[in-house]
Each structure stands twice: as structure tokens, then as C-alpha cells.
Input
Amino acid sequence: MVVNIHHNGCVMELDKMDENDWKYHGEGNKSLVVSHSQLSHVLRLLKYPAENAEHSPQTTEQAFRHIQNIVDFNKNIMKPLLGEKYVHHGEAVKLPLDFVRQLSLKVQQERPESRCDKVMDTFSGCAVCLPNLTQISSCHISQHRPSLCIEIKPKCGFLPFSRHVSKEIKRKVCRFCMHQHFKLANGKWKTMSRYCPLDLFSGNKQRMCFAIKHLLEEPQNNFKIFKNGELIYGCKEDVDLNGLAQQLKPYFYPSNGLIHGHQSSKVVLNELIQVICGALLSSWDSGRAGEPRKGEPRKGPAPEGRAHCEAGLLHRDMLRNGNHYLPKDCVLSKILQAQMLDSLDIEGLYPLYKRVERHLEEFPKERSRLQIDGPYNEHFLEKIKNCPSEDDGSIEYAVGKVHQYRVAMTAKDCSVMITLAPCGEDELPEPNLEIQPSKRRFTYSVSILDLDPKPYESIAHQYKLDSKIVNYYSRSLQSKQEAAVSSLYLERDHEDCTLVFHPV
Output
């Protein structure tokens, strides 16, 4: 039986799919996304390693279960934790196989070469159908004002505070900044990003704007901009900020706006940064960004320990204002709360993972009761919420902490979508962003996506990767310090020689 998708009054008939109605939208490590040219829909399809191109690694039933697990995890776990307004769980669908095969051929030429080590699943026809979050599907937004969408992958926003952390450097330098050195050494990127997640999650507007500026300058996989659903910026090594500013200028300074000369790019990009910062700080019960309707903003969770990363470029002495907290209901606060379910760090979590492994070796049928592979339902959520704070030696405690860690890892790897559209002079939709009364207003939406469950089996890989990243950063830091000391001694030796041979 073919089920049709209903969304915002539009109907997508799954038995009448035409690949020409769809276009390449983007892809991650495990899935590829296509968007509909007319309807506000996207399809997420699974990917496999290229060596499996001829033979599916899983049956159609397994593929659909995999897709349904993603939907259930979003709907039943991440949505309650992150907020109803932010999470769109989508719907698992089965597509005609002919359509999927033709679609795969159509989008292949648009895929980046670096992603072509994997192929789209053309065997099962299973996908997740979601709303297209790069567009504002609102009836009061005119078609001649195309939406602007900013996608940010913020990464982990706190330093580990667990007593299990064995290397002090992890309490001083954030994971993202350490990982940058490791990625650079392994050829993942040619230029190091100067973005630091701790600045973005600080709640301090100066630090947040500083972080967004560095995401603009070196986007890597962490920053993208879409104009009317089309990717116009991000993921390319040849960054053109002036070209971007020209594309964005009509949003912030219409044709009658007073902005000219070489300063215009800087001014336009600064407006963009201010809008992004405002949307990230806004709460859903706010009329304007960062300004609650009643009273003061409620403060979100403050991570224990340090709030600054030693590798970050913005030193605390440069700050005009002191530390702030994120408003409790803003998107970054919700993400940070979920991330902080990782209270033990991978070093404290790994022995509990081994405890679960030993238990499953002895009692393999327990895997289902402990919900290692799902189902992701209310019972799974209860295990996360009601896990004891102290280790009583039980398998239930170990499993609870493993599930919490997996949710935290999902939150550390999620993306935030901020979609904007300019309001007309006589329009005042809710919610709306107003930077200054004299400047343009935007209607906007904020969403969280990329919320797939992290596999239980990936914990062993994460433990090894953490050690590699920390050890590499420690060695590179030590080498720099030794080089600095050596240079200092060379200078002193040179000075001594000059004194000895100086004519009297």
C-alpha cells in the first residue's frame, strides 16, 4: 500500500514520483538529501560504502527498521529533550525503486568528489521525508522575498568536568580545538578553523559574534548558507566573503539603503552575524530575539569548571562584559543540556561499556530487554532520565549511562538551522527578529536536525579516537614549547658571543 505525505496542505503522492522534480540538496557521512523543486519537502536516503554498490548490505526490512529507528529516536527521545518547537522528526517512507535508481543517476554528477566513496541506497527504497527547513513555509511571506537559511554545526559546548579525566589538557582545551590539529595533520583540512564552540555557547554576545565570524571565515563542515533552498556558501576552500556580502546585501540593505564603498561587505556581514546571534539567543516565548516578554531571561545550565578554552583566540581580558548564561529556552541552551548528559567523559564511560559487553556475552538475550538497539520509546527515555547518579555496580546503571552518552553524542553532532525572511513594512509576524528599530525585521524559525542515534558499537571507536586526538595535541603542544625554549637559548647564546668578542 502506498501512503501519501501531507504537509502544510501539500500532498506528495509516493506512487507518482518523478526524479525530475527533485534536486541534490546535500549529504553527510551516512545519508544523502534531495529536495523537491515545488513542495517544501526533502528526502533523506541512506548511503553505503561503494564496495556494496552491487549488493545491499541489509534487507529491505532491515533498511526500513533502520529508517524507522531514526524517526523514533527523533520523535520519542530528542524531541522531548530538546523541545517540541525545535525538532521535526519526519516520517519513514517506502519509495518506488525505479524512482530511486533514476534519482541516484541524476544527482551523482552534483555530488562532491570527497563524498563519492559511498553510494546511495537504491535497493530498499526507504527514506525519511522531512519538511525543507531551508525555507519558511509561511503563508504571509511573499514569494518575491526568498528565504535565507544559515546552518551551523556547533559541536561540544563545554569542557569535561568528570573526575575520570586522566589528562589535564582536556580540562583546559576543548575537543573541537584539539581535533582541528589532528584533522590538519591527517589532511582532512588544509586550513585550521579558529572557531571555538565554547565562545558560541558562552551566552556572551561579544564571544558569540567572535565565534560566528570565525565560522564565516573558515566554514569547513560547520557552517552553510542557503538562499531560497540553494546552497550559496560553505564547505569550499576558496572562501569569498565579498561575494557572499553582495548576495546578502538586499536582505539587510534594500535598493534604497545607504551603504556604499569598500566598507559595505564588512557592514553587511556584521548585520548577518548580529541576526544569527539574536536567533540563537531567542526563546520561543520571546517577541524579539533575546528579550523575554516578561521579566528577566531565565538562565540555562552552566557547565562545571572552566568556561574558556585555552586554545581559543578571544582572551577573557579582551571582553568588555563578564560571563553570561544562555537563556534557558534558547536553542543553544537546550542542546547544551543534552550534551551534558555526558557527565563521565568517554574515559569514565568506557569501563561501563565494557561491563555491558561482558554482561551481553554471558546473557545475549538481555540485549533486547536493555534496549541496546532500541526500540526508542518512552521506556528508553525513562532509562535516560532516571539513571542513578552513583554507580551501584548494576548493569542497569551501566546501560543508563551508555544510553545517556549516546544521546549526548547526538547532541554534540547536531546542526542548527536558522531560516529568515524579511518582513514587509506593514507585517509583524511572530516570531520576529528586530536588530534595531531603524533596521529591517525578519520572520524566522530555528530548528535542530541531524539527530540520528549514535550506534552502541561506536563507543569503542570513540574511546580510541579520544586518546589519539589528546595525545597528538599534547605532543604538538610540547614540540612548540620545546621549539620556543630552544629559540630563546639560541638568542641568548648569540648575545653571549657578541659580548665576549665585543672590542674594548
